[in-house]
Write a structure and sequence with these properties.
The complex is a heterodimer.
Chain A (H helix, E strand, L loop, with lengths): L10 E2 L2 E2 L8 H16 L1 H15 L5 E3 L1 H7 L2 E6 L9 H14 L4 E6 L3 H13 L2 E7 H6 L1 H9 L3 E5 L6 H14 L4 E4 L9 H9 L1 H14 L6 E5 L4 H7 L9 E9 L10 H4 L1 E5 L2 E5 L24 H9 L2 E7 H15 L5 H7 L1 H4 L7 E6 L7 H8 L2
Chain B lengths: L2 H6 L5 E7 L8 H10 L4 E5 L10 H13 L3 H8 L2 H4 L4 E4 L2 H7 L1 H11 L3 E3 L5 H14 L3 E2 L2 E2 L5 H10 L4 E4 L13 H12 L6 E4 L5 H8 L4 E4 L1 H10 L4 H8 L1
Parallel strand pairs in B: 1-2, 1-9, 2-3, 3-4, 4-5, 6-7, 7-8, 8-9
Helix pairs in contact in B: 6-7
Classes of the chains: A alpha/beta, B alpha/beta.
The structure holds pyridoxal-5'-phosphate (PLP).
Pyridoxal-5'-phosphate (PLP) binds next to helix 5, helix 11 and helix 15 of chain A.
């Protein structure tokens, strides 16, 4: 059967794999050999689902957005990941990975973060489990995202500035990988999206797949059918999207829409629309689409939302794009901000700026009146107030 | 016979030096190679700079960033090296990350290497299985030796597989670390060097990472065929310049 899931070597079509230096081979191999077995263990499943329920607050609601639906003359449902503990879907993955780390006998956690959402989600689960945690964050992002830096510190995490390269997310990821090279035995690296070497993209997608697992039964209750006509999500690295698409990947009736950040415009030189601007290459151990010079040097993306500001995209999404299974749309800063404000005023929900990009598609693209469109509301906007204030002069 | 294999037959410990092409100055590449050969270095690794060198510590990161800022790129490196075999006979290896090679085109890259007289490549993030399935035949067509790494954590079975796949030497990373991170060797490294020696591999081993002076060079090569110096050489180069390369090499052996 044709599938859009990873094969056993971690490839989605031509994308994925593990392009890692030998120093990382034992770590990744240990994870690769064990992740599926551990995830299937009843004790793991039990603890994972218990924590998702009691600690994260799952299931998150699937909410019929009446006024938004009226405005765009279609049926729009919102999957409320913004109501997760810590304010975004990121925690689904960190809960899964901290349990994985424990099963593997690791006693130290490292992570990278851009905006700080994944850093906070990691710091949170490390506090929960009493495990030492170091989060790498670009020096420039530390300055831009002070509240999340403070949150991580309050949670007992050490935030280490990434001083190399462009001092943003990609460099924080490099630093985390370097830390892992230097600490191969006791440390687990909690990657924050469906990126990096195999088995990370598949593992993170599986942890996030709880999103579409819930959408299926929730939509059945509300609409009498499990399958929407479309699932829409914003894509940075691609983890909230992977979770929202997961159980629909191989269901051709369900349209998959991926929304990327166009920044100041695709051709402005300040953009993060990887599917439009990227070429096949290797970033952080994965063969995927990435923004780079003709010479193969990785370039710095730009988006108003720090969480979409990544020069690559997960290999699942590269394959969805290349194969035509997914429809990829890119949204500028301005359109995203406008759509975010519209959601506030139509539905009383302040979205993260990442998520605002997903809502802008209703201005870009027509849906049929009786189409059921599920938008993954990946996070809430508290962390972005500074940006909203500056942008709208509030 | 490939220059690397020929060199390795010599009855001496190999001193191998790594430097980043385009650093300190854009056009230092050829003068550095000539100075290294003049001072008796056995193997030279020419670093092709990359924006995201994730196996490297701060020294090589900085030299890579500076080299790119100076304007170094793949085609330019090939231009600089074009006449190198008129003046230099020491084995030359290009070391870099896989993405720039992929963008140049693996076959085009290998072909250029052969034209110039490059003898081998070290691409740490090109994994063994992908190399064997997709690229081995291309490397062989252009007479290039691909050098693989092992670390203290590499399993015995995998070391054997790497030994089977290797045709020059094995790059033995001395400890679990990025480049330039640790200096000197403890009992752990000595045990590791011994363990590998006892495996009686078909390829000689050359130790890299953590070698910075004559002491560490001695220790690293007691049981192995040679050692590679990178970060310490680049630091010397930054402080003293190309004209003092002889001073550095003489300090090692
Ligand atoms: C709310 C929210 N949505 C989306 C993203 C983008 O990440 P991903 O594409 O992995 O879901 C982030 C990342 O920080 C985020 O905080």
């Amino acid at each position: 059967m044709k599938t859009y899931h990873a094969d056993e070597r971690g490839y989605y079509g031509e994308f994925g794999g593990a392009f890692i230096p030998e120093m990382l081979y034992p770590n990744c191999e240990e994870l690769r050999q064990n992740y599926l077995r551990i995830m299937e263990e009843p004790s793991f499943q039990k603890e994972f689902h218990q924590l998702l329920k009691d600690y994260v607050g799952r299931p998150t609601p699937l909410y019929f957005a009446k006024r938004l639906s009226e405005k765009y003359n279609t049926k729009i449902y919102l999957k409320r990941e913004d109501l997760c503990h810590t304010g975004a879907h990121k925690v689904n993955n960190t809960i899964g990975q901290i349990l994985m780390a424990k099963k593997l006998g690791k006693n130290r956690i490292i992570a990278e973060t851009g905006a700080g959402q994944h850093g906070v989600a990691t710091a949170t689960v490390c506090a929960l489990m009493g495990i030492e945690c170091v989060v790498y964050m670009g020096e420039i992002d530390i300055a831009r995202q002070a509240p999340n830096v403070a949150r991580m510190k309050m949670l007992g995490t050490e935030v280490r500035p990434a001083l190399s390269g462009s001092r943003t997310l990609k460099d924080a990821t490099n630093e985390a990988i370097r830390d892992w090279i230097n600490n191969p035995v006791d440390t687990h690296y909690i990657i924050g999206s469906v990126v990096g070497p195999h088995p990370y993209p598949d593992m993170v997608a599986r942890f996030q797949s709880v999103i579409s697992e819930e959408i299926k039964w929730q939509l059945k209750e509300k609409e009498g059918r499990e399958n929407p006509d479309y699932v829409v999500a914003c894509v940075g690295g691609g983890s909230n999207a992977a979770g929202a698409y997961y159980h629909y990947l191989d269901v051709p009736d369900v349209g998959i829409i991926a929304v990327e950040a166009a920044g100041k415009g695709i051709n402005s030189g300040e953009s993060a629309a990887t599917s439009a601007l990227g070429k096949v290459g290797i970033i952080h151990g994965s063969k995927t689409l990435l923004m780079q010079t003709d010479d193969g040097q990785i370039t710095e993306p730009y988006s108003i939302s720090a969480g979409l500001d990544y020069p690559g995209v997960g290999p699942m999404h590269a394959h969805l794009f290349k194969s035509g299974r997914g429809e990829f749309i890119s949204i500028t800063d301005d359109k995203a901000m406008t759509a975010g404000l519209a959601l506030c005023q139509l539905e009383g929900i302040i979205p993260a700026i990442e998520t605002s990009h997903a809502f802008a598609i209703f201005e870009e693209r027509q849906f049929e009146k009786d189409d059921v469109v599920v938008v993954n509301l990946s996070g809430r906007g508290d962390k972005d107030l500074r940006n909203y204030i500056d942008y709208f002069r509030l | 016979m490939n220059r690397i294999n020929k060199k390795l037959q010599e009855d001496k410990k190999m001193l191998s030096i790594y430097f980043t092409a385009g650093y300190p100055k854009l056009n230092d590449t050829v003068p550095i190679i000539e100075e290294l050969e003049k001072n008796g270095v056995d193997l030279i690794e020419i670093g092709l700079p990359f924006s995201d060198p994730l196996a490297d510590g701060p020294t090589i990161q900085q030299s890579s960033t500076a080299a790119l800022k100076n304007g170094m790129h793949t085609e330019l490196l090939f231009q600089q090296l074009k006449g190198i075999r008129k003046t230099v006979s020491v084995p030359l290896i290009i070391m870099g990350y896989f993405n720039p090679v992929l963008q140049y085109g693996v076959e085009a890259f290998c072909k250029k290497c052969q034209e110039i007289g490059i003898d081998g490549l070290i691409l740490p993030d090109l994994p063994l299985d992908v190399y064997q399935e997709e690229y081995k035949s291309i490397f062989e067509k252009y007479g290039l030796i691909n050098v693989f790494l092992i670390t203290p954590q590499t399993s015995e079975a995998r070391i054997k597989a790497i030994d089977d796949a290797s045709e020059g030497f094995i790059y033995m990373v001395s400890s679990a670390s990025t480049t330039g991170a640790k200096e000197g060797f403890g009992p752990e490294q000595k045990a590791y060097f011994e363990r590998i020696t006892e495996m009686k591999l078909k390829n000689p081993q050359i130790v890299g990472f953590g070698i910075s002076n004559s002491d560490t060079f001695q220790q690293a090569t007691q049981k192995t065929k040679g050692a590679i110096i990178g970060s310490a050489f680049i630091k010397h180069l930054s402080q003293k310049g190309v004209s003092k390369i002889g001073q550095f090499v003489k300090g090692i052996r």
